[in-house]
Design a protein that fits this description.
Blueprint lengths: L8 E2 L2 H23 L4 E7 L3 H16 L3 E7 L5 H13 L5 E4 L9 H7 L11 H8 L8 H14 L6 E5 L6 H10 L3 E5 L6 H6 L3 E4 L17 E4 L3 E4 L3 H5 L3 E4 L4 H4 L5 E2 L6 H20 L5
Parallel strand pairs: 1-11, 2-3, 2-4, 5-6, 5-7, 7-8, 8-11
Antiparallel strand pairs: 9-10
Helix pairs in contact: 1-11, 2-11, 6-7, 6-11
The protein binds guanine.
Guanine binds next to strand 4 and helix 6.
Length: 302
């Protein structure tokens, strides 16, 4: 990868997400016209977490904008495990629904793993069932988690060929850290997964040609943790008080990533902003996964 001059090139998620959503909408139009097939996405939200409500609304709106069928289920916080499992089973059996997403986190009294285990893997557009995690780890086609898929698209657009690059993923969650490490491995990177127990995390990060931050700790990754010219993908979405004391005193908050953007942008070759980077790709990749699931269900794709 040719190293661009400092400061870093900003990887604008808006441009790539818009392009992917347009491609998805074109494919949906073709499927409807040629096969009478309208991909359908069901999103299930339990409880009233404000951030989840925003994400879920956005998923519904973008599905409709792409010409897809969209069904959003908003269940009360006191929903029981049995009620949620019954809904998942009904959606598994519904031929108009090709993708099901259960928004996480679920309220504490619900068993997340048990709910995810009930999802039909062919409709698991979040890639969170063990079947899809196993397919990803085995290098087989499946439905892969949306945020990691979006990150890989941004990396390929910005950096190009990733072969032989040293990649460090900070974070080991099922939703992001583990699956993106698998995708980087599939792209022939040499991959390290770092986490809260990693010794001398800064030194590990400094080895990375590609650094993916997915820890959920605001601005944890500082400029001097970054190798000059590296590609930095910031998956963090953290709400913090404004730096301006007046605004902070009014209780106003803003969203920042896991990377200290101002510092990192002076060192990195490429960097994703927060907001405006990875987050926008997640929904676009979800729409794409739903189209893939619909085509497979209809026998139109292997
Ligand atoms: N909560 C935050 N991100 C995600 C996601 O990608 N999928 C689901 N199901 N829940 C989330």
């Amino acid at each position: 990868m040719a190293e661009p001059a400092s400061p870093a090139q900003i990887i604008d998620g808006k441009i790539y997400a818009e392009r992917l959503r347009r491609d998805v909408a074109d494919e949906v139009a073709r499927l409807r016209a040629e096969h009478g097939l309208q991909p359908g996405l069901a999103v299930v939200l339990v409880g009233d977490d404000p951030a989840s409500q925003i994400y879920v609304r956005s998923k519904g709106e973008h599905s409709l904008a792409a010409g897809m069928h969209s069904a959003t289920y908003r269940l009360p916080a006191e929903t029981t495990q049995d009620e949620l499992v019954s809904l998942v089973k009904a959606l598994n059996a519904d031929p108009a629904i090709h993708g099901i997403l259960v928004q996480l986190p679920l309220p504490k009294h619900l068993d997340e793993r048990a709910v995810l285990a009930m999802l039909d893997p062919e409709k698991d557009v979040d890639g969170l069932t063990m079947i899809n995690a196993g397919r990803l780890a085995s290098g087989l086609p499946g439905l892969y988690p949306c945020t990691p898929v979006g990150c890989m698209m941004l990396l390929r657009e910005a950096v190009g060929d990733l072969t032989g690059r040293r990649a460090v993923v900070v974070g080991r969650s099922m939703l992001v850290g583990r699956p993106i490490a698998q995708l980087l491995l599939q792209a022939d990177c040499t991959v390290t997964i770092a986490h809260s127990r990693t010794r001398d995390l800064a030194a590990v990060c400094r080895e990375a040609d590609i650094l993916v931050a997915a820890v959920g700790r605001p601005r944890m990754i500082r400029g001097d943790w970054i190798k000059p010219g590296a590609a930095v993908i910031d998956v963090g979405i953290n709400r913090v008080p404004f730096d301006n004391p007046e605004k902070a005193a009014q209780g106003k908050t803003k969203v920042v990533g896991d990377v200290h953007f101002k510092e990192a942008a002076q060192v990195a070759g490429w960097i994703t902003p927060v907001p405006g980077g990875v987050g926008l790709m997640t929904v676009a990749a979800l729409l794409q996964n739903t189209v893939t699931a619909a085509k497979r269900a209809a026998g139109l794709e292997a």
